[in-house]
Write a structure and sequence with these properties.
The chain is mainly α and 50 residues long. The protein contains 3 helices and no strands.
């Protein structure tokens, strides 16, 4: 199935919980990235390609 291969995270019954956890992870990674950039480690994220 195309949908399952494209979005493997949406397999649990409570889809809202899935989206909440994914959004929280997004916000956490963004906050971490901003903190690292303010600390002068922008090159680190560029190398990772994120």
């Amino acid at each position: 199935m195309l949908l399952r291969s494209r979005q493997p995270l949406i397999h649990c019954r409570n889809k809202r919980q899935c989206w909440e956890s994914r959004r929280r992870r997004d916000i956490d990674s963004r906050r971490r990235e901003a903190a690292a950039k303010s600390a002068g480690a922008a090159d680190f994220y560029d190398d990772e390609g994120s």
